[in-house]
Structures are given as structure tokens and as C-alpha cells.
Amino acid sequence: MTLAIETFHYRLAHPGYCAIPGAHPGQMVGSGQLFKRHESLLASPDPRRLDLRASLLDPFNHYRVKVFQQHSKIDVLVIADLSASMSIPGGATKLQIAADFLLSCAQSAFESGDNFGFIGCGHGIEKKWLFPKGLRMGRVQELARDLSRVRSGQGGNGLFQVEPYLPLRRSLVFLLSDFHFDLNRLSRLAGLFGRHAVVPLVLWDPAEYADLPEWGIVKFQDSENRRTRTLLMRPGLKRKIIEAYEQRRDRLRHGLRSKGAEPVFIEGRYEASALTNYFLQRVV
């Protein structure tokens, strides 16, 4: 993990539902700068917002005041896949990159005044990785250190059991995984994508495909069942492996887009500017 914490800016397409003021457009009226509608002085007794022109035009001769859309805070959660494939050593383990993102996301949320939480998904949902909301930066730093040190192989079924642990109201959810599972299982996450604004972060290590040697003996190991296979690497085989990854990229992008989520592929290292650009190009 880097010492300097990079932050990014995010925004939502739909207004927040929290009554507590924050940095995002909300559904409630109150203090704000975005005009929402006129109401009678009796319904909204604040003479400072009296609109004389609207009052003169009112057919019932009622005093009319302006009401504004109040900005609200939202819940921001990071869901991290802790399966065995995420801890494969490479240029940097995927969980090391996930730890970097965890710090960046937490700092970004705190600067916006939002709630922040984290859920780690291994074989199931373990209590030590369950922090649905209310984390503080000191605890996030401890959590990031623990996350970067995970080395034991685990199953990834917890990813498909996470929905009951999420907030009921719409939240911003970052889903971190290498998605090295049967993509038909994405249908089991339908409730997650349907209720929340989900940003899938796909963590791929170039050492797994793009950085393979042109020639040489290479030993591959299945991270889940620990089976190994030794192959004579050659240009034609390397090209097939790269093509297989590109085909999976297309399938993954198509599957996530069908659920209304545009994935962000992170390969090599995490850069906060990539997330800022993502939200500048679209809202979730």
C-alpha cells in the first residue's frame, strides 16, 4: 500500500434517501440551492424564502415560498472477494490492490461526509470481515493491513450471500473481484444490482496472461483446487491465452452491462484518477 492516500470524486444518478444533510442531491426539501417547487407559507413557514412574484400570481391570494432540494449523505460500501484467486502473488497481489482501493474509497467517502462500510466475502460472511456501516479511518487502516496480508485460499461463495447484509436504502456499492468464477452465477447477484448503485471493479493481474514469456516452461496452478499443470510456453499458446482473457473480458462486460453496471478493469495498480474519470463519464 502507498503512504499517500489518493481520493476520487463520485456521484449518483438517483437522489439520496437520507434525512441527514450531505453532499449528494436528496429527495427531501430543506436547506439547499436547487429550487424544487413553491409551497404555501402555511405548509413551509419560512418567510425568508417568500417569493413576492409567485404570491401575486397565486389565484387564491396565498403567500408562496420557495422550497429547495436538500442534499443528503449516502452509504458507501466496499464488497471484496476474498477467494483464493485474489491472493495469488504477482506484481502485486489483487488483495494488496484491494487494500489500496479500500483506503482511497474510505477517505473519499469521509471527505464527502458519507457513511462507509466494508464486507469481505470468503467461503462465507465472517464476522471479522463484516462492517456494514460506520467505519472510521483508523479502523479502515487496520482493515487494509489485514486485507493485504490474506494469503490462505478460501472459497468465494460468500460473494453470493452478501445481499442480506446490505442497507435497505439505495447505496453506492463497489464490488471488488477478479470474477474468476462461472459467469452464469452473476444472475445470483441480481438483487444486489437491482437495489443499489453498483460499480464492479475487476482486478486482473497481467502476470496471469499478458506478461507470460514467449518461450519457456511455465507451471500453472488452479488457485481453488491447487491442481498444477506444466506447459511449454510458446508464442502461439501465449496468444491463445491472451485471446481467452479478451473473450472473457467481453463476456464479463456484456453480463454486467445487462444488469445496468459498467465495470472498471484495474490491471497492474490502482489509480484513483481512473475512478474520477469513470464518474465524470457517467453516473450510477
UniProtKB/TrEMBL annotation:
Transmembrane region(s): none
One of the Pfam families matching this protein, by short name: DUF58
InterPro entries assigned to the protein according to its UniProt record, in alphabetical order: DUF58, vWFA_dom_sf
Start and end residues of each DUF58 domain: 62-244
Name of this protein: MxaS protein involved in methanol oxidation
Species of provenance: Methylotuvimicrobium alcaliphilum (strain DSM 19304 / NCIMB 14124 / VKM B-2133 / 20Z)
